[in-house]
Amino acid sequence: MNIFQEIVTKSEWIIAVLALFLVAWTRFNSPPTNRSGTTFALFFCGAVFYCALIIPLWLVIMIGLVQGSIGFDWIGSKLTQVNPEAQAELAQYAPIVATLIIVVASQFRQVSRIDTAARTFCFKLAAIPREADRLAVELAQGADFEPTERLRRQVTKIISENISPQALDFCRDGTLSARFTRAVALYNLFVAPRSTGEAPEFAGSRHGRSVYALIMQMGETTAARADVRYEELMHSSLAFFTSPQPTHELKELLNCNIAEVTNLTCGLVARYVLFSEITHNGRLQRLSGMGFDARPTPTFGLDQWATTILLVMFLSVAMMVFIPGTRPIPVGHVLTIAITFGVSIGFAVLGAIVVAQRFIARHEEDSPAYPPVAELVIAGLIVVGLSIALRIGIPLLAALTQGDGVQDVLQQFLERLPGTITPFICTISLGFLCCYMGSLRWSWYRLAGIAAIGNGLALTGAGWLVGSLLGDTVLAQFYFHPERAVPTIALSTGLTGLMVGAVVLAVFNKSERIRKDCVERAANDPHMTVSLNDARTVADDIEAPLLSRFAALDDLGGYSRASVETMEGRYVCFRPAFSAADTINAYLLNLHWDEAESCLTFEEAERIDTGHVQKGRVYIPDGRPFLSFVTLEKGAIRLIMVSRPEKSTEPMRGLITTLSNPGGAHFTPASAPIVLKRVVDQAPQLGFVRPGGPDYEAYRSDLETVMPIFGCFATAPYTNSGTELHPDASQRDVRLAVVK
């Protein structure tokens, strides 16, 4: 009876905590549905962060209810005259009442603002908003798409009847007609069913239709934009494909519309897939069903993980029952120990595989690579923490069920604490084996044998250490002769390590070899620029958005976003025109941080010579006062090298190197001074600026300041006879004649 009273007494706390987490989960998931823009791991971490912010508020409210002047003390004092025990009875409901107050308080405007700020902070802390954008870019910029037969017939009819048969091309060769056909197919796959009212072909189940309706409701604005762009796409394609000699402007307009429709549609597809599936392989499976080349590869997934745990549990039960010298143990205690040990080893396997996947992805081309000691140690400590929670939680649940005391559970945990060494050593051992043998092209039995020996020896040592640290009191509970129990513990633990090492490495190696084959096939396919099969692991998904948002690649200079944030903005870019000596070409240049590219990027705008608009990446070498705006397109390179400003208002000065075609078809390398000035208030004069223009003199004086501090031109030495230099040649100043 006392046990049930204890459970009932604690139930207020249990119910309150569970309700609090449910409230945090619900609020964090709306609006909009944040899980559609992230991985489940990131969503869970963000929800935990948000719940952690609510718990202190819950505790403060509860203290106020119990001890505050207007709380239960005041109510209890009024009721004491009727029922002397009323105050104590009210106090036990403080946890639940505090939870209800938190729920109701969020309906008030001021409290709702604070709650929104807390959720926004947790979104950013967990890097939630970037996963859908990353997947959308992968789908839009090169993932192969093969329409189903039904969709192929629909697209064929639309293009043939409304545009032209020559615009229809289901090949994946990157031509304009192929890209146009792909954009039309993507739109009719995902967006068009919204307006027709038909169920999408890929959403056959009730759950799929429900998720599709939810995503389209959330993305109403994006879908409406896709409808408008699709209409523009059809008009521009009709003009281009039916014209006997389509102009460059028509081609550019069609390219722009294709990109817009593809990006908008793939953004909706990415959110649908992320909301529908939690696991990485599940998402690949769903994308494959929609027609994308995203076949899931075998991984050490949930089934293999559960099988490993069950094998460890069965082996533990068998050794506790059949090894000579062991005492008879109640069945309940045997199962408790086996489940705890099996799940602890399962955590160790999971930690080792995550670290190994990260290691192989980073060092695929490096041989040999320095071992990830720090990551394995951190993973091992996390596994130890989870094991401690299991070693307390499972016996505690059994104690409450069987009527044992809670103090006995805590005492047993402290006595058996050295047992956490085993999963820690298992994490380290399996991690090293998977890192260095996970992708070797050896036979499975050879790998399994070596892994079994290596992990078996490691866990044998761990078992010997655990047996030596356990006291005779604990060993006497399991063995008739505790003084001879250490070798038995070492042997039984080593057998477990032998079995786990063989199973884990055999499956892990198979999955890694298939993944590498998929990557190699994608690399050899000239039409596939992005491979979804080469997607990141769960650990990479957690880290990648943070890296992509705040740091550029080493090849770009390795600069951080914080170091270049003051440079972002709109600039007027002007230089001498190559076609006329007295003319200055001025246009706008937008400089901003690109999340997908993970670097500072630029894009020109409002150029009068629209056919030469450039965009590209910004390279900033460490320790040098210049930065480079580089355009790379089909082998053509254009370079702008300018000074890095110390203040945001200071102009950038330097040189541009590009091609000039004064004769029309004949191109000549050309270089000229160039200046970039930030646009603050009024818009400057753009286009071809000639003498007498409002900004001509300002542009010309700024261009003259380039030489010789921010750039110089070296000319061929001047000679009279071919062997002697002009007497004044060494004394002449080399100057740049800009625009007079």
From TrEMBL:
The chain crosses the membrane at residues 12-28, 40-70, 305-325, 331-355, 376-400, 420-440, 447-466, 486-508. It comes from the Bacteria. The keyword Membrane applies. Keywords: Membrane, Transmembrane, Transmembrane helix. The keyword Membrane applies. This is Uncharacterized protein.
